[in-house]
Amino acid sequence: MLNNMENERRNNNKNEDARMRGFRPSLRAMMLVIAVIWVGVAALYGLLKPVSNGCIMTYMYPTYIPISTREGVSSVKYGLYLYHEGWRKIDFKEHLKNLNGIPVLFIPGNGGSYKQARSSFYHCCYLVSKLCIALHKLLSFLQVRSLAAESDRAYQGGSLERTFYREAYLTSEEGGNVDVADFQLPNRYANRLDWFAVDLEGEHSAMDGRILEEHTEYVVYAIHRILDQYKESRDARKREGAATTGSLPKSVILIGHSMGGFVARAATIHPHLRKSAVETILTLSSPHQSPPVALQPSLGHYYESINQEWRKGYEVQTTQTGHYVSGPALSHVVVVSISGGYNDYQVRSKLESLDSIVPPTHGFMISSTSMKNVWLSMEHQAILWCNQLVVQVSHTLLSLIDSRTGQPLPDTRQRLEIFTRMLRSGIPQSFNWKMQSQSIWSTHVPVKDVKDTAGSQVHNLFDCPSSVHWSDDGLERDLYIQTTTVTVLAMDGRRRWLDIEKLGSNGKSHFIFVTNLAPCSGVRIHLWPQKGKSSSDLPAGKRVLEVTSKMVQIPAGPAPRQIEPGSQTEQAPPSAVLHLGPEEMHGFRFLTISVAPRPTISGRPPPATSMAVGQFFNPDEGEIEFSPISMLLATHSHKDVLLKEDHPLAFNLSFAISLGLLPVTFSLKTAGCGIKDSGLLDEAGDMENTKLCKLRCFPPVALAWDPTSGLHVFPNLYSENLVVDSSPALWASTGTEKTTVLLLLDPHCSYKASIAVSVTTAASRFLLLYSSQVINLNLMLANSYYYFYFPIVGFSVAVILFALMRQAHARPIPSILKAVESNLKIPFPFLPFAVVPILVSLFFSFVISQPFPPFFSFTIVSMICYLFANGFVILLILVSQLVFYVAAYIHVLIKRRWQLWEGNFCFLFLQWFMNLSSKFFSLKVVRVLRANPLFIPISAAIVLSTFVHPALGLFILILSHALCCHSSLCNDSKCYSFFLGNSYLTTSFRSHARKKELSDCKGEGNYLSQQFASKPGSPSKENSSSYGQTQEDTFHHRHGLLMLHLLAALMFVPSLVSWLQRIGMHQSFPRFLDSFLCICLILHGIFSSESLLSSSLPFPRILGQEVRLNFVYLIAGMYSYLSGLALEPYKVFYAMGAVGIVSFALSILQVWTGAPLSILQVWTGAPRFGRRRHWHRH
């Protein structure tokens, strides 16, 4: 007997282990979860560590003058203010009366304030406590000045000092194939800027489409109010007899930060906006392509509609028959987008691009890393107070004013030309030496004889002006260079001759020159057809060509310092570079480098140390390629490259994997600098060698170019992370994935270069680039504090839908964890799920004539994203299972205590109280509600989704799923065995649970009383096993739906946060699109029952198979996968809504064609009457 009991116990344990196996993750799943956690932690470490951006603070003394709001304005909670710079108290009315400048309206971004130009530290402290506010007052000198304060100072100080570096001009694609010689930047500004700002109450416009629309409507009102204010001010001056000069402004310049930039564009096409009220828009770190938190369907739809209207706005308006109606509605609008570069974690440069929205003839995007006089990457908030950028933008806006009218220039091309010349640098957009076109390093500008302001004849646009002309007598004596490398260490007043024919032989047909001397005032470069003392000595047919102004400016590193007092100063970093190709030197015999003959030029002192190095070189000798394998191996061990002395001055480093995806740490170590047998010394000798070489060799400089974010300059490159804000391996990516870096090294020194890949940096870049596909980590730094939330989008929804497809196909229903793990089996079904959507996306690209992304990298990265999405979903499933197990364990313990208390006084008193309340439960309304327990939660979910907020309705749906899962888990007899073990008490609990279930089912008229009611006596093993299998299947099915709807609810969390912020203010109903899709999800949760999984749809057979619900899940998963590839995660709601509609229609079809199903049966997944399931494990 004991042996029989022992065998029975072992058999029960084996059965329980088999039943619980679906709840335990496999080794493959655990490894994937560990990888996801490791990458997430590494990425957070890389994202949260402090970043030194090199920005200088700007200080201000602000005064905000409120502008009265007229009656009848719907958005009375918002406000309009006029900014005044100064610490003295002023009369607001008198100041408004004298308003006569150029109106500029600043629009804050997500969670921003009209005082946003002030230190973000202020708002952070305000949110923490009053103690921090006191600390802020103590540190009030740290308050920064906004664009308004700096533009006021720029107006008073005049225009920027003119330099003679090469300027950027419009390309032929941008309409620059016209004469630009007659257009010059102003020497002084004709009018000042009047800065206005809207107070949008710090609402989170990046999270809700309704808020964006309200902000747009108020900005339209603010624009009209500003223009009317100028008329009121002019009329007030007329009434007082004051002189009124100039014309009234007809347009307002819009400056938007973050989401404020998109609001500016939305207001420009608003149907109520006056004609030509907006002609110039400048955006700072503003997402234009799609919202950074693209999770709400109405928000994504609003973005699409605005961008579509902008595309139509630049098209000629015609009738259906093709007859001309009018010109483009936005032909007068110029838009310039400035991005913060790779340090802007919130809005990537890809989202800030204006491609396919604004044509190149009316706008462009530029990164702060490639802006003239800026050259820095900055965080999302730092772009508002970074002095280098603020100064350049202020002078750019002042340059837009016409000196004749005192109003902004009306010509679109002239305004775009000013933006180009003031913001862009003259550095080329390609470093491909093998291309012989002159456009590589020089913008195509017509070379013609023109006159400057003094009336003197100037040969071409690259000549120096006559005001800084050197007399040939000023040069002491000429030097004739016999080597391919020429060096200048002092302003010695000499002219150096280089024989192009001799030195440029043996393939060394390119010439490059770097210096810290200013062009024209410090150094000049000429091309001579033959040797002569001066240009006047040459025949009339042979003229000297000056190419000095072809030098492009690059950011210089830190100023040189003395290693010891009285010792020699370190070599200065270069601040300009010149490149001449063979075509540019064709027809000339000599090249001369003339250094300034006097210690001061134009009244300015020379630099502390002077340097210039030029070289004829062969581009092929400077090519260094890093293959994908070598870059991946650099994650474990760094790769070294030894560069000997007399190496090329310019190197082309070609990285096979984009530095936007895999940043590298590039380190340079000086190995020698002309000292014989120096080699690599010991550590002490190496330090002395490095100090000595810094006195002779200029600091290295690296220039990287990316098609998306533009130029990235890394001065003083001894150890630096080389990264560009690229967006490789995306569906919208085009072109090559390689990154080319131009490295400028002093040829007198030898270097030991090494590259290494930082895992944390690479993980951070991966998370930033592909977060909207896997886990959208939004570090909302608005108001200087962090919002951390992890909405699962794109691929994660596809993973759940694929798992639901497997649940709908398999019998018995596997757990959602087992379904996800089954989909990861290689090669099938993993490869079809991961690769087929990629092929479909490429087919769509072919159909719509869209350029194909790089196939190899696009496929590999997409599959990695899909794997990481699986890992994150598994992690989420494990956490939810842990919660259910803990809740079930507590539930069982409470039941155990309850039975132990059945005989004591407290239990009798509680039972008496429950009998007393039976009268209430005997009411007809209560009995109806008890018979249909889901009526209240379903009704509440639909009402909340329609009239309050969709997230609240989804939370109620999730709660219903959780209660159903908890009930099924606790009623499963095997779960009792799992929690309490095999004992007599377990058996009693099983009997008690089954009796209660049968009594409940009889009270509700449920079929379970007939299905599982046994004959007199003990219940049969078959019925008990079938009942346990039913509870287990119900748990698995509802758990899968819970995961899907949990993801949907989390996607609405940002919108819910913004809704909670507006409680007590003017509220409006949710958008119809959001409510409709959420109701579809609720219908999916109600009508997606176990009985529907095996029902066929009324569609033709596919490959001889009936179309069932699993096919619907498959199509929805594929669509969600494609939404992730397209960086449009909000579109997964369309797939989930379609599944809900199909489930609802299928349930209605079952009612029409068979026995009616009650809502309770549908909810619990009950099969029809008279049908029995015989599911067996094989």
TrEMBL record:
Keywords: Endoplasmic reticulum, Hydrolase, Membrane, Protein transport, Transmembrane, Transmembrane helix, Transport
Start and end residues of each GPI inositol-deacylase PGAP1-like alpha/beta domain: 99-119, 140-399
Entry's localization field: Endoplasmic reticulum membrane
Gene3D superfamilies for the chain: alpha/beta hydrolase (3.40.50.1820)
InterPro entries linked to this entry: AB_hydrolase_fold, PGAP1-ab_dom-like
Enzyme class: hydrolase
Keyword Protein transport set for record: yes
Region of interest (Disordered), residue spans: 1011-1030
Protein name: GPI inositol-deacylase
